[in-house]
Specification:
Elements (H helix, E strand, L loop, with lengths): L1 E5 L2 E5 L4 E7 L2 E8 L42 E4 L10 E8 L2 E8 L4 E9 L6 E9 L5 E12 L6 E6 L9 E6 L2 E6 L12 E5 L8 E7 L5 E7 L5 E7 L6 E3 L4 E3 L3 E7 L1 H16 L2 H4 L6 E3 L1 H4 L5 H14 L3 E4 L29 H9 L3 E6 L3 E2 L4 H5 L19 E2 L5 H17 L4 E4 L19 H19 L4 E4 L17 E2 L7 H12 L8 E4 L11 H8 L3 E4 L8 H23 L1 E6 L1 H4 L1 E7 L5 E8 L10 E3 L9 E5 L4 E5 H6 L2 E3 L7 E8 L1
Parallel strand pairs: 21-22, 21-30, 22-23, 23-26, 26-27, 27-28, 29-30
Antiparallel strand pairs: 1-2, 2-3, 3-4, 5-10, 6-7, 7-8, 8-9, 9-19, 9-20, 10-17, 10-18, 11-12, 11-14, 13-16, 14-15, 15-20, 16-17, 24-25, 31-32, 32-33, 33-38, 34-37, 35-36, 35-38
The structure holds (2R,3S,4R,5S)-2-(hydroxymethyl)piperidine-3,4,5-triol.
(2R,3S,4R,5S)-2-(hydroxymethyl)piperidine-3,4,5-triol binds next to loops.
Length: about 700
Amino acid sequence: MKTQRHENIFSLETQNYQYVLGAGKSGVYHLHWGGKCRIEDFETCELSEQNSNHSVLDFTKTEYVPFGGTMYREYALKCVFDDGCRDTVLEYDNCNIKTDCIEIILKDRKYGLSVSLIYKLFENSDIIERYAVIKNESDKNIVLEKAASAEINLPGERAYTIINSNGSWGGEFRKTEQKLESGTISYESRKGTTAHHHIPALIAAENPAEDTGAVYFAVLAWDGNFKVSAARDFSGKTSAVIGLNDFDFSKTLESGEEFRTPSVYCGIANGLGEMSRKMNEFAVKNVLPKRFAYENLPVLYNSWEATGFNVNEAGQLKLAKKAAEIGCELFVMDDGWFSSRVSDKSGLGDWDVSKIKFPRGLKPLIDGVNALGMDFGIWVEPEMVNPISELYKNHPDWTYNYKTRKPNLLRNQLVLNLTKPEVQKYILDFLDKLLSENNIKYIKWDMNRPFSEIGTDNLKNGKELWYRHTRAVFNIVDELKKKHTDVQFEACASGGGRTDLGSLSHFDMVWPSDNTDPVDRLDIQQGYSLLYPIKCMRAWVTDTNKEARPVSMAFRFAVSMQGSLSVGADLTKLTKAELADCKKYIELYKKIRHTVQFGDLYRIMNYAEDKIYFTGYVNKEKTQAVYFACTGANSFFNDRDVTLRFKGLDENAVYNVKSEYRKFRKSGAYLINRGIDISYCKPLESEIFVLEKE
Ligand code: DGJ
């Protein structure tokens, strides 16, 4: 990794690539992102003469272009100055260069606006972190109406394929590929969290494939309203703007105040597989909260699917006993334990333990769980209130609302106005008390509805609520973590609505979907694995609807063992044989979980193309690997064999390969180049291959 400057050309060298930009009189221009070159060979770009048909800015590659002048395409920044002027002119002012970071400072001198563009490098990595810091150096207010994190320019003039997802609740991360021939493709959230629909990232490739073709990616670390806008201009060039959504966005910068945009992690990879491996490793090293980043996540039991709201001491202990017997290490009691919470209609906001369900308080349950050798975790939904609650009775003004409008009661609840310091304090205090008074080691932080009627009576600029809310959530989690250092936090929002690198900079893991059907889950998990760290993906084994689709325990475990294995089935209803199966697979998982959670991922075969999923995880030393083969719900191969070719192994090593059905010894080279022939004749068959280097 290296930074360099030659005249007004700036270069950042990652492990394998180079990013070059040039400062001209009227801005900062993009010069290169790709293979390494000599910095002396680059020339500064200066804007040429323009005419009324061709705005030069239409086809100039810029790094952070403001709204104004002849800028007619998507811009990164829009300001409104005190005198009503909405035209921003950024000129290059200065730079700061360190070995791992370049800061380019741009100024609108007339209005006292300064914009610092930050580019940061990381040891042994191809990722560059980018963000902007916008500062008001004048004595008047400046209103930001857009403040993106970065502009991304892709090389060449060919049309790129843009990869993202077209998800929904229960169907998160359904991968899509769209060729961007002309115009704009835009992905966004307007719901207050990242939501279930799109990934806050740009993934662009000319010919997307797992192992070949340059893939350019930029991943936004933000949980909230975001926008990724990729456009192809008339000359064939593709660029994108990524960051906070400008939908209903505004930020008043008072004199001396600065605004830092969320980070975007940008990189290049050879194929989608390499992109995932790079981002997985990078996130563990540089994004996840430090405390647990390198720890294997415990096998968790969660009560939601077994007991719903119907939780009590005896029932939870009954489940906990079984959970301990099969090898779970952490028992999480989900929704329903507090105040009047018997359904989703009441109780949110009143976080005292239900006297009816837990007349002796939580202590006997937690002690019981601890005596079984497990840690205890608990569910909360701190940002919400049910109108049927003491909190709402006492503080009806603590929600986002307009006095003149009837609120939309999605899931019978309202969103608390977290931009109010007193609301933040209430949440911090109740969680601090809960964690201080009880031996709780895990918080599942849920968030079950999008924002609506977004009125605030406390903010001068009401449109600031969107990002202020997200920052308040992050601050509360950070504060709690400072004091309760041994508590892990899971982010959940009706399943995967809060799955992004923003939450994963503060929470230790995520719940990627409420859909625990193992067949659907294979696609959801593959989509998740594109950019996000495997160890953070909680994956429950649950009961299946036997009439709709009977799925074996073996298959269910083969799916959930591809992330952070968890169990959500009603263990009190399982047969002895089924419980023995659970125990067997949990034991196996503990032997391979470090490889799954920290190894390199290979999506080798997928259902759409191969009628089988074959996915591998190889540890960094290539001494252990685990591969999961799962046929789909409709795979009838009958007389057809399938050849499984393994990836990621050491070609020169010999591996002992073991699965439930076979045991053999082969060289890495054979397994990679020839592979093994197997007949999977039935739908929903699975096989877990564990490879140990000799
Ligand atoms: C939605 C979550 O995604 C579920 O896992 C569960 O915690 C429920 N909320 C509880 O209300």
